[in-house]
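Per-residue structure
===
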Amino acid sequence: MPDAEDVRRIALSLPDTTEKTAWSMPTFRVAGKMFATLPEEETSLAVRCPKEERDELALAEPGKFWIADHEAQFAWVRARLSALEDEDELRDILADSWRQAAPPHLLEAYPELGRPPGE
């Protein structure tokens, strides 16, 4: 089961990522744009996710994903770290969120991170 230190290690391994405390919690940013946070005493992860996809995730796997009330109008979803299968799933979630926040020059410089497989 991945934990907060795994989130930190994987997030910071992504290009041009920094960690900054905001709202009394760790946040992770690519080129200054936030793509992940560690809320709920670092037992969950909040990441960028298109609204239609996050709604599907929350309905399909409510034990793993949910939408925080104060984030309902934004394209963010929460994931319980204890419900994630392994580090590979965590890495995929973080990389997907990173792609959504990264500027075009980084997506071009790191094509392996620029698009999910099959796109």
The longest helix spans residues 87-101. The radius of gyration is 13 Å. The mean pLDDT is 93. The CA atoms of residues 108 and 114 lie 7 Å apart.
